[in-house]
Amino acid sequence: MKKIINHPERVVTEMLEGLVAAYPNQLKLIDGRAVVTRKDVPVANKVGIISGGGSGHEPAHAGYVGQGMLDAAVAGEVFTSPTPDQILEAIKAVDSGKGVFMVVKNYTGDVMNFDMAAELAEMEGIQVDKVVVNDDVAVEDSTFTTGRRGIAGTILVHKIAGAKAEMGATLADVKAVAEKVVKNVRSMGMAISPCTPPAVGKPSFTLGENEMEIGLGIHGEPGTKRKTLATADEIAEELTDHIFKDMPLSSGDEVAVMINGLGATPEMELFIVNRKVNQILKEKGIGVYETFVGNFMTSLEMAGCSVTLLKLDDELKDLLAAHANTPAFKK
Amino acid sequence: MKKIINHPERVVTEMLEGLVAAYPNQLKLIDGRAVVTRKDVPVANKVGIISGGGSGHEPAHAGYVGQGMLDAAVAGEVFTSPTPDQILEAIKAVDSGKGVFMVVKNYTGDVMNFDMAAELAEMEGIQVDKVVVNDDVAVEDSTFTTGRRGIAGTILVHKIAGAKAEMGATLADVKAVAEKVVKNVRSMGMAISPCTPPAVGKPSFTLGENEMEIGLGIHGEPGTKRKTLATADEIAEELTDHIFKDMPLSSGDEVAVMINGLGATPEMELFIVNRKVNQILKEKGIGVYETFVGNFMTSLEMAGCSVTLLKLDDELKDLLAAHANTPAFKK
Amino acid sequence: MAELILNRQFFVNVIKDMAELVEKEKDHLTKLDSDIGDGDHGVNLSIGFRETMKQLELINSQAPDISSFLKKVGMILLGKVGGSSGPLYGGFFIKAGADVQGKDEVTFEELIGMIENGVNSILQRGKAQVGDKTMVDAFVPGLNVLKDSTDLKPIERFAAFVEQMKKGAESTIPLVAKKGRAMRLGERSVGHKDPGAESSWMLMEVILNNLKKIVGE
Amino acid sequence: MAELILNRQFFVNVIKDMAELVEKEKDHLTKLDSDIGDGDHGVNLSIGFRETMKQLELINSQAPDISSFLKKVGMILLGKVGGSSGPLYGGFFIKAGADVQGKDEVTFEELIGMIENGVNSILQRGKAQVGDKTMVDAFVPGLNVLKDSTDLKPIERFAAFVEQMKKGAESTIPLVAKKGRAMRLGERSVGHKDPGAESSWMLMEVILNNLKKIVGE
Ligand SMILES: Nc1ncnc2c1ncn2[C@@H]1O[C@H](COP(=O)(O)OP(=O)(O)O)[C@@H](O)[C@H]1O
Ligand SMILES: Nc1ncnc2c1ncn2[C@@H]1O[C@H](COP(=O)(O)OP(=O)(O)O)[C@@H](O)[C@H]1O
Ligand SMILES: [Mg+2]
Ligand SMILES: [Mg+2]
Ligand SMILES: [Mg+2]
Ligand SMILES: [Mg+2]
């Protein structure tokens, strides 16, 4: 295992310290809890938005803490859900009295721990609600989930729910728009090389020199099929085909596109994929309202990418365009 | 060689098409010339700023085209200088009559080709000037250079020269501030795994499971030493030590810090390095005015990082803080 | 025979004995989890109960009632056990105490209600059903016996509960996992006992043993 | 003997013959470059001169004078040859034409001035010095001979220039490379002739051969 780290057991803490050291005016760290919050929490008269999950998906989620997106992010160990006490800490830190909204990716551990935290918070009189993001069309059930996994589409939930909250919306309104995003967002990923969780020390799977894995998750859990490495154009077609099968789009529809790198993919390759995805959408008469290309939801140093499409209406467009200022996402 | 591409010979063209497809309202591509410009060039009454070089360093340089940074970027083949006719095309596209400023990294090929283009432009009556960036303290001469190489510090030149030009400064003033940045910026890099240029098809070098290369460049050219893989803290110390030896900093000085990933480095690791760099600077009483962590100047899928320090004065601080809106850098 | 009354010390003793059990069975539980999971179930529980033991005196002295005491225990387990069993067992204790606020002693009938609440929390949290090869395969049939066998005396009734849970744990051996990490093994999970099902009856047996001590058997 | 006058057709012929030479010597030059460089010098020149040949008629018909014609040739080489030799040779032709604007024929003395301008462009561009193991090792001593041997007749004078360049190319064999890609080899570059030094005298020999044709030797 080759990594630029000090000790496998300290990676999460040290990463968060390094993050907060880079943005001392915007972020703060709740000591010993692996919770990163906006410096100005609780933000008066605003629904607090939190998210979180296992680490190793950076910039998700602490990189999205800031104006117009998250109020706090809770970090578990690498690929391991944070615990309810950590999440509770985040809920308490961001609650301004208007309630707290949790964006949870659909992994059994995450859902259980966030639910637990929500119950504890409610016992303390804090109003909490949540959305469970399950954008991955690859599989219905995986090692880590019942039902579909949450992957890169989660960032668009952060953006849109965050913008809604920033406008002063109620908890119910934030939830409604977040659910609208979840209903209209689909992703599908692939990889050409695995990742090595620091504490495990060996790759999560092996792939031949000429193989790729289609439909895999962001923890190195197996995909739906292993195939001979295809061209970027073929990959773009396969990923978008899966999405279209699940969420038919027709001429005149408008979408936001996210081409997400899994950590070790050169940006060059992401743009080559975007070129084809853009062509495919144009051929179908689907409007591309906005495109995001980069590393948004990674899997350590996995090489590969995912394609996310979010079907938009006017409300979603406005919220997508709203101001945001976080380390990893600015508008 | 595992890559998400269509054909090694088309990677640059297709990448640029994918980039412009992602930002159709901000960028345009000069057909067949691998030149990306702001959509609104030439910008009236503004010195045009251009940069460029071999491809494979994305988001450098096309990702920095936009308000407050570059007016155009010229892309060569992977790790190969663009040719003077391409550069000339960029110069002509961005000249508003106020002259054009070129930010060139110190590689023999780049310098020769940009100089040649400048002469040709001058023959056509366009005023052109340049700065040669040589921030890498690792080596005096390398395979590709006479004198020091230009690496991640180049992005800070883009930012600051770009901001100065945006304010309406003259060509001479833009040059003066760019030279001030070059005089005050130093970088040093290391890698734990090589990259594979698409047309070459094999890794640029090999490293043992327990080795790292210190002081290497962004084309996989050899570094100054090969060592046993150290901890993130030790790496941070070694890189900053080299910089301090070359550019002594004292208590009370203020710097901007850039922790740059070479392409395949998980953001987690970059933040762990930043944590230590930040500690080292604080211990020395050096103020950290701003920190940039991410993939700014990459080397395809090389794993590793570089540390850049820019010593600031009030002018540089203001220009660093000025508005910028490009795909890869927003302020 | 006087009604069976369980005071706060009873619950403190139960937690202490559970911690002891977990240390003793750590390797056994971990072994079961390495067959079909990620090999940490015993370790997870041990980390959680060790931390509970560290804080036990303090939380006992600070908690105003049994409800708060169990909530604190649950919170520590939640924060330390991690994985799936953390929120499941943590939630079990928190919810077990939810209906007995303000009380410093509870009746045997109230104990049954507390266990029912705890099991419901596991069901609600994990959304597993009987047959999914989880601790639910032990808890649910066990709870049915506990609630239904009103004709039995307390100790016998509780012993029947534990006995049924143990059977439930055995019943997971031929099953294909449908929840938790073992899911990924699919058919390959057949032939192995579910570690959480195993730990759950063992933990409930600790309560049984403490009940026996009280009635002086 | 009447003064030696070189018309535009002379330069067109020179470029055609250079293109032919490059095809003939492509493998030889590439071989030299693979010993100490990246093995593309012959290929680079071939790509550039092939494109020049494709456009030759067109640019000849459009260029108002020798200066523009050579500038166009240089521009094509700049854009197509790439690497180091692209800007060096491209610049050579562009600068060679810089002082003869508006002319459709030049004298032999003017030709010498054109070559001097071209060599200066290479020096300015590449910043190499004699002894760095580059084409400069051929051009600089050659140019000195060309300028100094005013006592010789044009053909003899130009022949002495080419002869000296050829010696200069030989002189690179024992040198350690200090510029260009060969630099990275350090001591290992010793014992190999520099490919650019080799191509440079060969290209100048093409001019010599065309001069000979004119004076009818
Ligand atoms: N959804 C669920 N509902 C009920 N029990 C579950 C569920 N998921 C897992 N379990 C139980 O948790 C046990 C595994 O616990 P543990 O090994 O500590 O956690 P992890 O699986 O996260 O490593 C399983 O043996 C199973 O009994
Ligand atoms: N700085 C320089 N000055 C003069 N000539 C140079 C310089 N750098 C390289 N050359 C010449 O260029 C030749 C190599 O050309 P070529 O192989 O086409 O380019 P590249 O080295 O970029 O592959 C060398 O043999 C040398 O003669
Ligand atoms: Mg386990
Ligand atoms: Mg586990
Ligand atoms: Mg070469
Ligand atoms: Mg070359």
From TrEMBL, chains A, B:
Which InterPro entries would you find in this protein's record? DhaK_1 (IPR012736), DhaK_dom (IPR004006), Dihydroxyacetone_Kinase (IPR050861)
The alphabetical list of record keywords is: Kinase, Transferase
Q: Record's SUPFAM superfamilies?
A: DAK1/DegV-like
Domain DhaK: residue ranges: 7-329
**Which Enzyme Commission number(s) are on file for it?**
2.7.1.121
**Signal peptide (residue range):** none
Q: EC top class, in one word?
A: transferase
Pfam families attached to this UniProt entry: Dak1 (PF02733)
Q: From which residue to which does any coiled coil extend? A: none
Query: GO molecular-function annotation terms?
Result: phosphoenolpyruvate-glycerone phosphotransferase activity
Question: Which PROSITE patterns does UniProt cross-reference here?
Answer: DHAK (PS51481)
Domain of life from the UniProt record: Bacteria
- Provide the protein name: Dihydroxyacetone kinase subunit DhaK
Q: Which gene encodes it?
A: dhaK
From TrEMBL, chains C, D:
Keyword vocabulary terms for this entry: Kinase, Transferase
What is the organism of origin for this protein? Caldifermentibacillus hisashii
In which domain of life is the source organism classified?
Answer: Bacteria
Q: What Enzyme Commission number(s) does the record list for this chain?
A: 2.7.1.121
Q: What is this protein called?
A: Dihydroxyacetone kinase subunit DhaL
PANTHER family, alphabetized: TRIOKINASE/FMN CYCLASE (PTHR28629), TRIOKINASE_FMN CYCLASE (PTHR28629:SF4)
Q: Name one GO molecular function term.
A: phosphoenolpyruvate-glycerone phosphotransferase activity
Q: Where is the DhaL domain?
A: 9-209
